[in-house]
């Protein structure tokens, strides 16, 4: 399989999940501004959405959307514990958190990564929108080591990568000490150490 990615972007969560699942992967870097690949061809021919990640399966099909790619990968390695199997209610707890990270954390954070976001919206994001989400995550982490319980899952890989962007935009997380401890805990995982080699911002 092949993953189209940008080091440090949300596609990094897919890489962590692939590593945890012990699935070998070819990588292709995307220039998100120009949408041009390193071989000079257009990324839009791979993924017309122009966003990473995109996963090329061995049969040539292309799967997009980070949360879905991570589900697919985790389902290829059921023993990894990254996502419980269908029929087990614990699966829906993991997906509940994965969806929260995608829709509330990731997409609330994204404007801070864009140079053209108006200053006023940027300030509101930092002062109001993100703290609300951080509060939910911090409170959840009072009850368990990881978002869906005591096991590291795809939701945690995703949360780890997006929360890591706080450092890049100089957003202090110390008001949410359980999040700080959670990020430290996850950063020590061998899979994460391996993937983050050469990626700044963590
Ligand atoms: N809906 C997509 C969004 C992915 C996304 O926001 N990717 C960002 C990088 S973290 C990106 O490619 N941004 C460039 C752009 O939107 O043009 C998903 O969930 O995978």
Q: Can you describe this structure?
A:
With 202 residues, this protein is α+β, with helices and mostly antiparallel strands. It has two domains: 79 residues, 3-Layer(aba) Sandwich (Glutaredoxin), CATH 3.40.30.10; 102 residues, Glutathione S-transferase Yfyf (Class Pi), Chain A, domain 2 (Up-down Bundle). Helix content is 48%, strand content 9%. The protein contains seven helices and five strands, in the order βαββββαααααα. Strands 3-2-1-4-5 form a five-stranded mixed β-sheet. A hairpin with a 5-residue loop joins strand 4 and strand 5. Helix 1 packs parallel to helix 2, helix 1 crosses helix 7 and helix 5 packs across helix 6. The protein is globular, with a radius of gyration of 17 Å. The two termini are 26 Å apart. The site of glutathione has 11 residues, from helix 2.
Quickly list its features:
5-stranded mixed β-sheet, Glutathione S-transferase Yfyf (Class Pi), Chain A, domain 2, 2 domains, binds glutathione, alpha+beta, 202 residues, 5 strands
Walk me through the topology:
Layout: E1 2-5, H1 11-20, E2 26-31, E3 36-37, E4 54-56, E5 62-64, H2 66-76, H3 89-109, H4 119-140, H5 154-168, H6 177-187, H7 190-196
Parallel strand pairs: 1-2
Antiparallel strand pairs: 1-4, 2-3, 4-5
Helix pairs in contact: 1-2, 1-5, 1-7, 3-4, 3-5, 5-6
Glutathione binds next to helix 2.
């Amino acid at each position: 399989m092949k993953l189209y990615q940008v080091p440090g972007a949300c596609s990094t969560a897919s890489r962590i999940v692939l590593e945890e699942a012990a699935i070998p992967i070819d990588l292709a870097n995307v220039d998100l501004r120009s949408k041009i690949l390193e071989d000079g061809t257009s990324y839009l021919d791979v993924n017309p959405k122009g966003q990473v990640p995109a996963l090329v399966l061995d049969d040539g099909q292309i799967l997009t959307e980070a949360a879905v790619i991570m589900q697919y990968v985790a389902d290829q390695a059921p023993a990894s514990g990254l996502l419980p199997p269908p029929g087990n209610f614990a699966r829906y707890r993991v997906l509940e958190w994965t969806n929260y990270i995608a829709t509330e954390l990731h997409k609330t954070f994204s404007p801070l990564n864009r140079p053209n976001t108006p200053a006023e919206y940027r300030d509101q994001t930092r002062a109001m929108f993100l703290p609300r989400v951080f509060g939910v995550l911090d409170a959840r982490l009072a009850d368990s080591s990881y978002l869906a319980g005591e096991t590291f899952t795809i939701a945690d890989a995703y949360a780890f990568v997006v929360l890591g962007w706080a450092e890049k935009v100089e957003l202090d997380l110390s008001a949410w000490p359980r999040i700080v401890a959670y990020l430290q805990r996850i950063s020590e995982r061998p899979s994460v150490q391996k993937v983050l080699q050469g990626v700044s911002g963590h």
